[in-house]
Amino acid sequence: MTTRVVGGLDVHRSIIAGSLLKPGGQIEHRRYATNVADLRKLKGWLEENQCEVVGMEATGVYWKRIHRELEKGMQVVVANPQHIKAIKGRKTDKADAEWIARKVADDAISPSFIPAPEVRETRDLARYRQNVVKNQTQIKNQIHKLLSGAGVPLSSTLEDLFGVSGMGILNRLKDGESAWTGLEGLLKGEAQKKAEAIRLALEMPLTEAQRWELAAQLDRLARTQEDLKKANDALESRLPHYAAIRARLVAIPGIAQEGAGLLLAHLGPDLSAFPDADHFAAWIGLCPGNNESGGKKGKAPTRKGNYYLRGLFTQFAHGAIRTKGSWLQHKYRSLMGRMIYQKAIIAIAHKLAIIVFKVVKDGVEYKDRAEEYVPSNDKKRSLRKAIAFIESRGGHVTFPTPNPDKALPKPSALKPEAVDQPEAAPRTSEHQERPRKPSQKPTKASEVSTKKARDLSRTPRRRRRVVTG
Predict the structure, then answer these.
(1) Which long-range contacts (CB under 8 A, 24 or more apart) does 33-40 make?
(2) How far apart are CA 342 and CA 321, in angstroms?
(3) Whole-angstrom distance, CA of residue 73 vs CA of residue 67
(4) Exposure winner among 198, 282, 379, 400, fewest CB in 10 A?
């Protein structure tokens, strides 16, 4: 039985079902609309009853306006709907609100990470920017598809169809002009070396409908690029006060200025909601799940986490494994020896999440320790090579023992120094080895099957009796 007043809200698009659980087990139910006036009435009702904590599901985007209205007066717990599902067959708005209130009273809800209001606004801008980037990629793919279907394979000759050279050719094609004339003036840089291949790719003329579609797609691309520029400017205007943290993040392999800005736009500078780096990585969705029953462990994919941050850290991992000489690149090469590419990338993304957490929360500088990295499988081999190198230069290697009662490691394992062995006595006639019998080589399965087939081929077949009436 609870000793405090807690509330539960079942949030929908147009209505809110609220329940108050009071000391003594008393329940009070109310229903409100989602307009501003009713939201203020809801807040007044909760404050009038001295509600300390109120919980609700993260239903789409409808919870945001309610959270924004209530967060200044009380503690608001936003929960994953999968964690507080009610019993099937007993689902009503009133019952759901009461169920949430009882879960809050029992502290049985894991609260979701809700950053500060200014961080949430910056995060919305970052997600809008990501949608604009997706639209830009979609338009470019449609232009590639249009040209390939029209018999103009520019994608196979130009490295970047939307660079300076490619855009010059596309503008000529949309205007109905032939790109043959003055082609050398349109090509810049490395594209000039492929002038003949580009000329052959432009042999097929576009129809009137294809030119109209190409012009429309290029106009869409220009507008999208302008929207992307505006989104970048709006996002950068909110990040100057993160300059110190951003500089520390850029020092991490795989993270550039743009990536560090997007990361801070989603997280902000305060990660105190996460007790440690492992919880942070699990929240993003970069940790393996658990699937154990009856003492047997089955396959478990990575957990579902933050969609945007998981994709962001995956991009960081692709950049980190291409950073020459970095510790993360060495770690990736070590992982590739025992797992597939996709798993290795997620493992590197997990490492990056732990590094980012410590850099942001603890304020430490990232130091790459690539020179100290030695794969675990090669430690003994590296030690033997180092000892052999030292002894070849006239040196001598000894291993000190911290405990004199413990014996030194076996010389056969590490070979730190030569061990004097007593000379063996010469063999006499009594010690001569007996002649061994010639060992029979084990017969392979393939040889057995071949021999069996050979024997069967020699066996005469039985003739079928033909009975005639």
Answers:
(1) 34/62, 34/65, 34/66, 39/65, 39/66, 39/69, 40/69
(2) 13
(3) 10
(4) 400
Please state, in angstroms and rounded to a whole number, the distance separating the CA atoms of residues 170 and 138. 17
Burial of 382 (0-12, 13-18, 19+ CB in 10 A): exposed
For the residues of 324-387, what is the DSSP string, one character each?
Answer: TT-HHHHHHHHHTTTS-HHHHHHHHHHHHHHHHHHHHHH-PPP---TTT---GGGHHHHHHHHH
Output the pLDDT for position 175.
83
pLDDT tens per residue, range 132-144: 999 999 999 999 9
Gap between the Cα atoms of 286 and 291, Å rounded: 16
Answer whether 387's CB lies under 8 Å from 415's CB: yes
CATH number among 3.30.420.10, 3.90.280.10, 2.60.120.280, 3.40.50.2000, domain 6-112: 3.30.420.10
Distance from the first to the final alpha carbon of the chain: 97
Enumerate long-range contacts of 296-302, CB under 8 Å, 24 or more apart: 302/346
Strand partners, 79: 57
CA–chain centroid gap for 469, Å, is 79
pLDDT digits (tens, 9 = 90+) for 180-207: 666 777 888 888 888 888 888 888 888 8
How far is residue 182's CA from residue 169's CA, in Å, rounded to a whole number? Answer: 10
Both tokens of 344, joined, read: 């290795």
pLDDT of 84 reads: 79
Q: What CA–CA distances, in Å, run from 242 to 258, 310, 358?
A: 13, 21, 16
Parallel, antiparallel or unpaired: strands 292-293 and 296-297: antiparallel
* Amino acid at residue number 42: L
| Six token digits for residue 424 | 């063996």
